[in-house]
Amino acid sequence: MLRVQLRLVAVAVMVAIIVVIYYLDSIADKSNLQSQHHFLDALTHFPHLTGFSDNNHQQYMLEKAKKLGKDQEISEAVAQDEASDPCTIINPHSHGFIDLRGLSSLGNEGRALPWTTKGYDYGRNFTLGICSTPFKKSHNGPREMQDGVNSTLVGGYYMDTKSGKYVSLGEFSTTPVVRGRKLTLKYYNGSYCENLVDRSTGLPARRSTMITFTCDRDMLAKASISYVGSFDDCNYMFEVRSHHACPTAAKANNLAAVWIFLLIFVAALLVYFSGDFLYRNIRAQKMQKV
């Protein structure tokens, strides 16, 4: 009877250890989310005729945040540190994990996955890649690419009917960013804009693209892309509706789960054998008294 009671106590202690471990783990997760996802909300500035690179634009965001009195926890990890994998992000508002790789070559075994849309009031057809180039083969060279841009970095393009060349809308990025309540993807350093100058450098401005993503769980297709508009035939805006833009549960930390399991297993063994050792000692003492 005593042996059964000791083992019940051992089981109770083990359960208590498990509860404490999960409680501490949940606190750690919450703390990490709060520290890692404290971002600049509601900055919806679209760079107009500036041709900023991603790093320059992030620096601009940091300076803007300081002027607005935002917390200085907004560090150099403005978007790319949000998730360890390219083309993914953790929404700083809902803490949901968003994975856009299913819309890109990253989720297509490395094969290009172009998305086309017609600019009805623009008179051109656009082809975009999400986090990757839409080109299925290289088109390098001044005979094919306007302004001699590198086709392997192009994130979107259209064909110029006059020159017969591809016009780059910007170099693709694998870093989604949440601006306000919108998930966005920015492409910079495309082909040169006509008769426009970058005010920060005095050089000809380059084309850039802003892609916004809208969660649509009811879509039967993988995604739907539409042309929204452009500014001075230099900055372009597109909207993508897809269930891939919907937040899901955050990726599990497999390494942490393994360590937790090992800790629980070791604790269970210690409690079990210590209870059995205590039982044997008590029994031996009783036998000596007899």
What would you say this structure looks like, in words?
The protein is an alpha+beta fold and 290 residues long. The chain has helices at residues 2-36, 54-67, 254-289; strands at residues 88-90, 97-99, 115-119, 124-128, 156-160, 165-168, 177-179, 182-187, 192-197, 204-206, 208-215, 224-231, 235-242. Among the domains are: 97-245, Mannose-6-phosphate receptor binding domain (Cation-dependent Mannose-6-phosphate Receptor, Chain A), CATH 2.70.130.10; 253-289. Mean pLDDT is 76; it is low at 30-55 and 64-80. Helix 1 runs antiparallel to helix 3. Strands 7-8-11-13-12 form a five-stranded mixed β-sheet, with no helix packed on it. Strands 3-4-5-6 form a four-stranded antiparallel β-sheet, with no helix packed on it. It is built from three helices and 13 strands; from the N terminus they run H-H-E-E-E-E-E-E-E-E-E-E-E-E-E-H. Strand 12 (224-231) and strand 13 (235-242) form a beta hairpin. The longest helix is centred in the last third of the chain and has 36 residues, at 254-289.
